[in-house]
DNA sequence: CTGGATCCTCTAGTCGCTAGAGGATCAAGC
DNA sequence: GCTTGATCCTCTAGCGACTAGAGGATCCAG
């Protein structure tokens, strides 16, 4: 039953301070008590709730799914069909994504293997990009990679 | 040597009209000629350039990389080291991503397999989310999945 | 000559944070 | 008591790569 500052909470859950304020703003974390000087004061349950959120994010669940999941965790007397459905959905999304990335990997490997040492005019990488018909298979990356 | 409206260009390259205007705005596509009534007029080279961009995006290259790649394609007398390096970088990013997603998939499979039919209080999905120590391996999704 | 498609510019929204400005407060050392 | 540096506060804006929508002009087929 220890009280935590936002900084301590952040360290405890390995999350950045502004992220906590952001989660509060969008209603994933409840508004905590405040000191007289308006500083947030958290209890241990906040650490658990934040860890839950962090873990779900690591597993790739979008915020709105986490909202549902938290709701279920808060109400253990409700049926958990939604949780199962969300997990299944997430699994499908991950599997789709892996398949797409494997197609990309194959294409990129071909590009890299054919890479040239000379002039851009003869570069297989650039040529491959210019002409989709050179590709062995269909591929499409739905979003950016290598974010940080 | 046909002239195209923006709509025709969009259909030719299978890209949305606002995306073309966006690419122009950020300087990936040059500003085209205009009709008297200010409508954009494109030549065939714009179709090729846009196809190049689209293909590179499909392969997951970020815009800034594509800028470099286009630069090289525009200057065939320059060396193509950069193109090779970018392709290699992109390949590494894809491989990292695949590895992460495979760890996620394993974790999600475990969650789904243990899924319950009953109450949220007994739900293995929620329990797994609440307690990272239940996880078989490390995992971390660097970004969202299933975008569209 | 009319009506629906297409075009124009501009602004704001998406997602999940992250960074920074500008200022208040706290805790530790002297 | 005083200073200093860490931490806290709110607020706004930015990231990437678009996408959506408002409000209006223009084009073309029938």
Keywords:
148 residues, Multidrug-efflux Transporter Regulator, Chain: A, Domain 2, two-stranded antiparallel sheet, 57% helix, homodimer, elongated, mainly alpha, 2 domains, DNA-binding
Do you know the CATH architecture of the largest domain in chain A?
Answer: Orthogonal Bundle
Order of helices and strands of chain A: HHEEHHHH
- How many structural domains does the protein architecture of chain A include? 2
Please report which band the strand proportion of chain A falls in: under 5%, 5-15%, 15-25%, 25-35%, 35-45% or over 45%. Answer: under 5%
Low-confidence stretches of chain A: none
Please outline the major beta sheet of chain A.
2 strands, antiparallel
Q: CATH topology of the largest domain in chain A, what is it called? A: Multidrug-efflux Transporter Regulator, Chain: A, Domain 2
Provide the gyration radius of chain A in Å. 23 Å
- Assembly type of the chains comes to homodimer
The greatest interface here is: A-B, 65 and 65 residues
Q: Find the count of extended strands of chain A (DSSP E, 2+ residues).
A: 2
Structural class of chain A: mainly alpha
* Shape, principal axes of CA atoms of chain A: elongated
As a percent range, the share of helical residues of chain A equals 55-70%
CATH first level of the largest domain in chain A: Mainly Alpha
Strand order in the sheet with the most strands of chain A: 1-2
Q: Number of helical segments of chain A?
A: 6
End-to-end C-alpha gap of chain A? 36 Å
* Chain-averaged pLDDT of chain A: 85
